[in-house]
Amino acid sequence: MKYRKLGITDMEVSTLSFGASSLGSVFRNTNEQESIRTVHTALDQGINYIDVAPYYGLTKAEIVLGKAIKELDRSKFYLSTKAGRYGENNFDFSAAKIASSVDESLARLNTDYVDILFLHDIEFVPAEIVIHEAIPTLHRLKEQGKIRYCGISGLPLQLFETLIPQINIDCILSYCHYALNDSSLLGLLPLLEERKVGLVNASPLSMGLLGTRPTPDWHPASELVKRICKQAADYCAVHGYDIAKLAVQYSTANSAIPTTLVSTSNPQNITKNATWIEEKLDQQLLKEVMEILKPIANVSWISGRSEYNEQLQGTVETARAKHEGADV
User: Fold this and answer.
1) Using one digit for the tens of pLDDT, what is the confidence trace for 230-239?
2) Distance CA 269, CA 280 (A)
3) CA nearest 146: which of 114, 171, 123?
4) Which residues are catalytic?
5) CA gyration radius for the chain?
6) At residue 321, does pLDDT exceed 60?
7) Are 134 and 84 in contact (CB under 8 A)?
8) At what angle do helices 60-69 and 32-44 cross, to 10 degrees?
Protein backbone atom coordinates (compact mmCIF):
# COMPACT_ATOMS: atom_id res chain seq x y z
CA MET A 1 0.00 0.00 0.00
CA LYS A 2 1.24 3.47 -0.91
CA TYR A 3 0.62 6.56 1.19
CA ARG A 4 0.31 10.21 0.21
CA LYS A 5 0.17 13.50 2.06
CA LEU A 6 -3.31 15.01 2.40
CA GLY A 7 -2.87 18.71 1.70
CA ILE A 8 -0.93 20.43 4.46
CA THR A 9 -2.38 18.22 7.18
CA ASP A 10 -0.15 15.79 9.06
CA MET A 11 -2.10 12.89 7.54
CA GLU A 12 -0.29 10.39 5.31
CA VAL A 13 -3.29 8.55 3.88
CA SER A 14 -3.40 5.25 2.02
CA THR A 15 -4.02 5.67 -1.70
CA LEU A 16 -7.00 3.35 -1.27
CA SER A 17 -9.27 4.22 1.64
CA PHE A 18 -12.41 2.72 3.11
CA GLY A 19 -15.82 4.31 2.63
CA ALA A 20 -18.11 2.96 5.31
CA SER A 21 -21.43 3.80 3.66
CA SER A 22 -21.98 0.12 2.84
CA LEU A 23 -22.01 -0.69 6.54
CA GLY A 24 -25.31 1.18 6.72
CA SER A 25 -26.99 -1.25 4.29
CA VAL A 26 -27.12 1.58 1.75
CA PHE A 27 -26.63 -0.76 -1.22
CA ARG A 28 -27.84 -4.09 0.18
CA ASN A 29 -28.80 -5.67 3.47
CA THR A 30 -25.63 -6.38 5.40
CA ASN A 31 -24.52 -8.68 8.17
CA GLU A 32 -23.07 -6.81 11.12
CA GLN A 33 -20.35 -9.32 11.93
CA GLU A 34 -19.29 -9.49 8.30
CA SER A 35 -19.20 -5.69 8.19
CA ILE A 36 -16.98 -5.60 11.27
CA ARG A 37 -14.64 -8.15 9.69
CA THR A 38 -14.50 -5.98 6.58
CA VAL A 39 -13.28 -2.99 8.58
CA HIS A 40 -10.61 -5.08 10.30
CA THR A 41 -9.58 -6.59 6.96
CA ALA A 42 -9.26 -3.13 5.42
CA LEU A 43 -6.84 -2.08 8.15
CA ASP A 44 -4.94 -5.36 7.81
CA GLN A 45 -4.49 -4.57 4.11
CA GLY A 46 -2.75 -1.28 4.96
CA ILE A 47 -5.75 1.00 4.54
CA ASN A 48 -5.46 3.70 7.20
CA TYR A 49 -8.33 6.09 6.46
CA ILE A 50 -12.04 5.46 7.00
CA ASP A 51 -14.89 7.80 6.07
CA VAL A 52 -18.48 7.61 7.29
CA ALA A 53 -21.51 9.84 7.92
CA PRO A 54 -24.67 9.82 10.05
CA TYR A 55 -26.68 9.95 6.81
CA TYR A 56 -25.48 6.49 5.73
CA GLY A 57 -28.17 4.09 6.84
CA LEU A 58 -29.58 6.80 9.09
CA THR A 59 -26.75 6.35 11.66
CA LYS A 60 -26.40 2.57 11.13
CA ALA A 61 -23.04 2.90 9.36
CA GLU A 62 -21.58 4.89 12.26
CA ILE A 63 -22.96 2.45 14.81
CA VAL A 64 -21.50 -0.59 13.07
CA LEU A 65 -18.19 1.15 12.42
CA GLY A 66 -18.05 2.18 16.08
CA LYS A 67 -18.34 -1.46 17.09
CA ALA A 68 -15.60 -2.39 14.63
CA ILE A 69 -13.08 0.16 15.88
CA LYS A 70 -13.94 0.04 19.58
CA GLU A 71 -11.14 -2.35 20.47
CA LEU A 72 -8.60 -1.02 17.96
CA ASP A 73 -5.67 1.30 18.55
CA ARG A 74 -7.13 4.68 17.55
CA SER A 75 -3.69 6.01 16.60
CA LYS A 76 -3.38 3.41 13.81
CA PHE A 77 -5.99 4.93 11.48
CA TYR A 78 -7.61 8.20 10.44
CA LEU A 79 -11.33 8.71 10.70
CA SER A 80 -13.70 11.22 9.14
CA THR A 81 -17.41 11.75 9.45
CA LYS A 82 -19.84 14.41 8.31
CA ALA A 83 -22.52 16.78 9.51
CA GLY A 84 -25.37 18.69 7.91
CA ARG A 85 -27.21 15.96 6.00
CA TYR A 86 -29.33 13.48 7.92
CA GLY A 87 -31.83 12.14 5.38
CA GLU A 88 -32.76 12.26 1.72
CA ASN A 89 -34.13 15.78 2.11
CA ASN A 90 -33.07 16.53 5.67
CA PHE A 91 -30.40 19.23 5.86
CA ASP A 92 -29.43 21.33 8.87
CA PHE A 93 -26.19 23.31 8.86
CA SER A 94 -26.99 25.45 11.90
CA ALA A 95 -24.31 25.83 14.57
CA ALA A 96 -26.37 24.05 17.21
CA LYS A 97 -27.16 21.07 15.01
CA ILE A 98 -23.57 20.63 13.80
CA ALA A 99 -22.29 20.73 17.39
CA SER A 100 -24.85 18.17 18.62
CA SER A 101 -24.33 16.02 15.53
CA VAL A 102 -20.61 15.74 16.22
CA ASP A 103 -21.20 14.72 19.82
CA GLU A 104 -23.67 12.08 18.69
CA SER A 105 -21.27 10.78 16.03
CA LEU A 106 -18.41 10.55 18.51
CA ALA A 107 -20.61 8.50 20.84
CA ARG A 108 -21.67 6.13 18.06
CA LEU A 109 -18.08 5.79 16.84
CA ASN A 110 -16.67 5.11 20.31
CA THR A 111 -14.01 7.79 19.96
CA ASP A 112 -13.38 11.23 21.42
CA TYR A 113 -12.28 12.89 18.17
CA VAL A 114 -12.40 12.55 14.40
CA ASP A 115 -9.54 13.51 12.17
CA ILE A 116 -11.78 15.29 9.64
CA LEU A 117 -15.33 16.61 9.79
CA PHE A 118 -16.91 17.34 6.41
CA LEU A 119 -20.01 19.43 5.86
CA HIS A 120 -22.13 16.96 3.92
CA ASP A 121 -23.53 17.83 0.46
CA ILE A 122 -23.56 21.57 0.92
CA GLU A 123 -24.84 22.23 -2.61
CA PHE A 124 -28.38 21.93 -1.22
CA VAL A 125 -28.23 25.00 1.03
CA PRO A 126 -27.48 28.70 0.47
CA ALA A 127 -23.79 29.61 0.58
CA GLU A 128 -24.40 32.18 3.33
CA ILE A 129 -25.30 29.45 5.82
CA VAL A 130 -22.11 27.54 5.04
CA ILE A 131 -19.82 30.58 5.05
CA HIS A 132 -21.18 32.47 8.04
CA GLU A 133 -22.49 29.75 10.35
CA ALA A 134 -21.30 26.24 9.49
CA ILE A 135 -17.61 26.95 8.81
CA PRO A 136 -17.13 29.04 11.99
CA THR A 137 -18.71 26.16 13.92
CA LEU A 138 -16.13 23.76 12.49
CA HIS A 139 -13.34 26.08 13.60
CA ARG A 140 -14.76 26.10 17.13
CA LEU A 141 -14.90 22.31 17.13
CA LYS A 142 -11.22 22.25 16.13
CA GLU A 143 -10.41 24.50 19.07
CA GLN A 144 -12.32 22.11 21.34
CA GLY A 145 -10.30 19.15 20.07
CA LYS A 146 -13.33 17.23 18.83
CA ILE A 147 -12.13 17.43 15.23
CA ARG A 148 -8.60 17.87 13.92
CA TYR A 149 -9.37 19.16 10.45
CA CYS A 150 -12.43 20.41 8.61
CA GLY A 151 -13.76 20.31 5.08
CA ILE A 152 -16.72 20.33 2.73
CA SER A 153 -18.23 17.70 0.44
CA GLY A 154 -20.59 17.74 -2.52
CA LEU A 155 -21.07 16.71 -6.13
CA PRO A 156 -20.85 19.81 -8.38
CA LEU A 157 -17.28 20.96 -8.93
CA GLN A 158 -18.62 24.49 -9.37
CA LEU A 159 -19.52 24.30 -5.70
CA PHE A 160 -15.86 24.05 -4.74
CA GLU A 161 -14.77 26.68 -7.25
CA THR A 162 -17.27 29.10 -5.72
CA LEU A 163 -16.73 28.45 -2.03
CA ILE A 164 -13.08 27.50 -1.55
CA PRO A 165 -11.83 31.08 -2.18
CA GLN A 166 -14.25 32.34 0.47
CA ILE A 167 -13.60 29.93 3.35
CA ASN A 168 -10.78 28.48 5.41
CA ILE A 169 -10.84 24.68 5.21
CA ASP A 170 -8.31 21.86 5.26
CA CYS A 171 -9.73 19.46 2.67
CA ILE A 172 -12.63 18.56 0.41
CA LEU A 173 -14.38 15.31 -0.46
CA SER A 174 -15.39 15.03 -4.12
CA TYR A 175 -17.13 12.05 -5.68
CA CYS A 176 -17.80 10.73 -9.19
CA HIS A 177 -15.38 13.21 -10.79
CA TYR A 178 -12.22 11.13 -10.99
CA ALA A 179 -13.25 7.89 -12.59
CA LEU A 180 -12.93 6.27 -16.01
CA ASN A 181 -15.95 8.17 -17.34
CA ASP A 182 -15.28 11.51 -15.66
CA SER A 183 -11.88 13.03 -14.86
CA SER A 184 -13.07 16.63 -14.56
CA LEU A 185 -11.72 16.76 -11.00
CA LEU A 186 -8.29 17.39 -12.53
CA GLY A 187 -9.46 20.89 -13.45
CA LEU A 188 -9.90 21.69 -9.77
CA LEU A 189 -6.36 20.72 -8.76
CA PRO A 190 -4.74 24.14 -9.40
CA LEU A 191 -7.21 25.83 -7.03
CA LEU A 192 -6.66 23.17 -4.37
CA GLU A 193 -2.91 23.57 -4.71
CA GLU A 194 -3.14 27.35 -4.52
CA ARG A 195 -5.30 27.22 -1.38
CA LYS A 196 -3.36 24.26 0.08
CA VAL A 197 -6.53 22.20 0.41
CA GLY A 198 -6.32 18.41 0.65
CA LEU A 199 -8.40 16.16 -1.60
CA VAL A 200 -10.37 12.99 -0.91
CA ASN A 201 -11.71 11.32 -4.06
CA ALA A 202 -14.69 8.99 -3.78
CA SER A 203 -16.74 6.59 -5.89
CA PRO A 204 -14.31 5.37 -8.57
CA LEU A 205 -17.18 3.24 -9.92
CA SER A 206 -19.38 6.35 -10.29
CA MET A 207 -21.99 5.03 -7.87
CA GLY A 208 -22.38 1.80 -9.80
CA LEU A 209 -22.25 3.15 -13.36
CA LEU A 210 -19.08 1.20 -14.08
CA GLY A 211 -20.30 -2.36 -13.76
CA THR A 212 -21.96 -5.15 -15.73
CA ARG A 213 -25.08 -5.12 -13.58
CA PRO A 214 -27.90 -2.76 -14.60
CA THR A 215 -27.46 0.67 -13.02
CA PRO A 216 -29.89 1.21 -10.13
CA ASP A 217 -33.08 3.08 -11.04
CA TRP A 218 -32.25 5.79 -8.50
CA HIS A 219 -29.01 6.70 -10.24
CA PRO A 220 -29.28 10.31 -11.49
CA ALA A 221 -27.16 9.83 -14.63
CA SER A 222 -28.86 10.05 -18.04
CA GLU A 223 -29.83 6.92 -19.91
CA LEU A 224 -27.11 7.67 -22.45
CA VAL A 225 -24.43 7.76 -19.75
CA LYS A 226 -25.75 4.55 -18.23
CA ARG A 227 -25.83 2.78 -21.58
CA ILE A 228 -22.31 3.71 -22.63
CA CYS A 229 -20.85 2.87 -19.22
CA LYS A 230 -22.52 -0.53 -19.48
CA GLN A 231 -20.95 -0.98 -22.92
CA ALA A 232 -17.52 -0.27 -21.44
CA ALA A 233 -18.11 -2.74 -18.61
CA ASP A 234 -19.28 -5.43 -21.03
CA TYR A 235 -16.23 -4.82 -23.23
CA CYS A 236 -13.95 -5.45 -20.26
CA ALA A 237 -15.88 -8.59 -19.35
CA VAL A 238 -15.52 -9.99 -22.88
CA HIS A 239 -11.77 -9.53 -22.52
CA GLY A 240 -11.75 -11.32 -19.18
CA TYR A 241 -11.31 -8.15 -17.13
CA ASP A 242 -13.44 -6.64 -14.38
CA ILE A 243 -14.07 -2.96 -15.10
CA ALA A 244 -14.11 -2.37 -11.34
CA LYS A 245 -10.46 -3.41 -11.26
CA LEU A 246 -9.57 -1.04 -14.09
CA ALA A 247 -11.53 1.77 -12.42
CA VAL A 248 -9.89 1.36 -9.02
CA GLN A 249 -6.44 1.08 -10.56
CA TYR A 250 -7.04 4.20 -12.67
CA SER A 251 -8.31 6.30 -9.76
CA THR A 252 -5.48 5.38 -7.40
CA ALA A 253 -2.63 5.62 -9.93
CA ASN A 254 -2.54 9.42 -10.17
CA SER A 255 -0.14 10.81 -7.56
CA ALA A 256 -2.06 14.11 -7.61
CA ILE A 257 -5.08 12.31 -6.09
CA PRO A 258 -4.03 11.55 -2.50
CA THR A 259 -6.67 8.93 -1.72
CA THR A 260 -9.72 7.25 -3.23
CA LEU A 261 -12.56 5.85 -1.15
CA VAL A 262 -14.14 2.51 -2.00
CA SER A 263 -17.09 1.07 -0.14
CA THR A 264 -17.96 -2.54 0.60
CA SER A 265 -19.21 -4.64 3.49
CA ASN A 266 -17.49 -7.79 2.25
CA PRO A 267 -14.00 -8.74 3.50
CA GLN A 268 -13.12 -10.50 0.25
CA ASN A 269 -14.01 -7.44 -1.78
CA ILE A 270 -11.82 -5.05 0.19
CA THR A 271 -8.93 -7.53 -0.03
CA LYS A 272 -9.48 -7.76 -3.79
CA ASN A 273 -9.45 -3.97 -4.13
CA ALA A 274 -6.25 -3.66 -2.13
CA THR A 275 -4.63 -6.36 -4.28
CA TRP A 276 -5.70 -4.70 -7.52
CA ILE A 277 -3.87 -1.46 -6.87
CA GLU A 278 -0.60 -3.33 -6.46
CA GLU A 279 -0.96 -4.86 -9.93
CA LYS A 280 0.10 -3.25 -13.18
CA LEU A 281 -2.53 -1.21 -15.00
CA ASP A 282 -3.34 -2.57 -18.46
CA GLN A 283 -2.66 0.56 -20.51
CA GLN A 284 -3.97 -0.88 -23.77
CA LEU A 285 -7.27 -1.91 -22.24
CA LEU A 286 -7.51 1.47 -20.53
CA LYS A 287 -7.07 3.21 -23.88
CA GLU A 288 -9.77 1.06 -25.49
CA VAL A 289 -12.23 1.61 -22.65
CA MET A 290 -11.59 5.36 -22.68
CA GLU A 291 -12.44 5.36 -26.39
CA ILE A 292 -15.79 3.70 -25.66
CA LEU A 293 -16.51 6.23 -22.92
CA LYS A 294 -15.37 9.23 -24.97
CA PRO A 295 -18.89 10.35 -26.05
CA ILE A 296 -19.91 10.86 -22.40
CA ALA A 297 -16.54 11.91 -20.95
CA ASN A 298 -17.00 14.32 -18.03
CA VAL A 299 -20.79 14.31 -18.38
CA SER A 300 -22.28 14.57 -14.90
CA TRP A 301 -25.73 15.31 -13.48
CA ILE A 302 -27.38 18.13 -11.60
CA SER A 303 -27.28 18.09 -7.82
CA GLY A 304 -28.47 20.82 -5.49
CA ARG A 305 -29.00 24.50 -6.13
CA SER A 306 -28.95 25.97 -9.64
CA GLU A 307 -26.02 28.32 -8.97
CA TYR A 308 -23.72 25.32 -8.56
CA ASN A 309 -24.88 23.56 -11.72
CA GLU A 310 -24.62 26.26 -14.38
CA GLN A 311 -21.63 24.58 -16.00
CA LEU A 312 -23.63 21.38 -16.52
CA GLN A 313 -26.40 22.90 -18.59
CA GLY A 314 -26.48 21.31 -22.01
CA THR A 315 -23.70 18.78 -21.40
CA VAL A 316 -25.98 15.77 -21.66
CA GLU A 317 -27.62 17.13 -24.80
CA THR A 318 -24.22 17.82 -26.34
CA ALA A 319 -23.04 14.30 -25.54
CA ARG A 320 -26.17 12.80 -27.06
CA ALA A 321 -25.78 14.86 -30.21
CA LYS A 322 -22.15 13.83 -30.60
CA HIS A 323 -23.05 10.20 -30.01
CA GLU A 324 -25.74 10.31 -32.68
CA GLY A 325 -23.48 12.12 -35.13
CA ALA A 326 -25.43 15.40 -35.12
CA ASP A 327 -23.88 18.83 -35.57
CA VAL A 328 -23.17 20.62 -32.28
Assistant:
1) 999 999 999 9
2) 19
3) 114
4) 56
5) 19
6) no
7) yes
8) 60
